[in-house]
Amino acid sequence: MAQTNYETLLTSIDQLYAAALDPDRWQDFLTSLAGQFEAKNAFVCEVEYRERSLAYVGLPQPDRARIPVQRYETLIADDPRTYAFRSSGVQPVHCRMATTTERLHNSRVYREYLKPLGIEYTMVVVLPLRDGTTRDVGLTRGPDGRPFDEDDRALMSRLVPHVERAFTINGALEAKLLAARRQAHLRNVDQRLLELRFGLTPAQAQLAALLYDGVSVKQAATSLGITEGSARQYLKKVFEKTGVKRQLDLIRAIEGALARDG
Q: What pTM was computed for the model?
């Protein structure tokens, strides 16, 4: 049973707000959270269900290099827990509330992702961000750990209001950065630099440059004379080649490239 240690809880809350202001601090919060719940792993992620993509920050795991998070992206639709997690109403939900052990063990997501990573039990809080997208906080335990129970849910519930506020703060800061990009008088990015630095094709580099200058994907598609769907396919390739998952991180990657070559 999870025991409420209020000093530890307050420490986790402090670290959560610190992480909202500085993404480099997520590891501190996750380490504290995992320790409080005797969990094997703790993570935060942003999931785009329509695109089947997610941005993930978690604690180090021994088999993560062999089984990357991107593997889960291909299995989201096959996860028997997904519906219950997404319809939880901003309440902590553990996997045995979402599905039976038998059904979970017979699923592709368990055979190909959870079991190889040593994940038997999961508890998450899913917060709607926008249509089709959520921001989640989760904990996992291995087969040698105990299942998450009502005491764990009650303890996690104490954190939920703070998680909501922290995500709101973090989202507002990201939006402010993107808005500043649109308003600033930025020089055009050297597309050739992007091609050389990241191995982009000319079309991909042109799209990345437009996004860096604050243009939306839809506006960029119009400028390039392609459909929005094609632009999003280009963007997917740009993300793969630059090693990022979101437009904000793409801007930071381009900024880094400019700083090194500027």
A: 0.70
List the domains of the chain with CATH numbers: 6-177 (3.30.450.80), 185-261 (1.10.10.10)
φ, ψ of residue 108 in degrees (nearest 5): -65, -40
- Residue 174 banded pLDDT, cuts 50, 70, 90: confident
pLDDT of residue 109: 96
Task: Name every residue whose Cβ is closer than 8 Å to that of residue 176 and which is 6 or more positions away in sequence.
Answer: none
According to the model, what pLDDT value does residue 161 have?
A: 95
Phi then psi for 81, rounded to 5 degrees? -90, -15
Per-residue pLDDT, averaged over 190-206, amounts to 87
Mean pLDDT of 12-40: 93
CA dihedral 207, 211, 212, 214 (to 10 degrees): 150
- Residue-wise burial string across 153-168, b where 16 or more C-beta atoms lie within 10 A, e elsewhere: bebbeebeebbeebbe
DSSP H/E element including 71: helix 69-73
Distance CA(224)–CA(245), nearest Å, equals 22
Q: Is 42 helix (H, G, I), strand (E, B) or coil?
A: strand
| CA 21 – CA 106 distance, rounded (Å) | 41
Q: Which two tokens stand for residue 2?
A: 């999870």
Helix (H/G/I), strand (E/B), else coil: 88? coil
Type of residue found at 57: V
Token pair recorded at residue 159 = 């954190």
Six-digit token pair at 150? 């009502």
- Rounded CA-CA distance 133/245 in Å is 13
Residues 121 and 94: beta-carbon distance below 8 Å: yes
H or E element, residue 56: strand 53-58
Confidence of residue 227 (pLDDT cuts 50, 70, 90): confident
pLDDT greater at residue 178 or residue 217 = 217
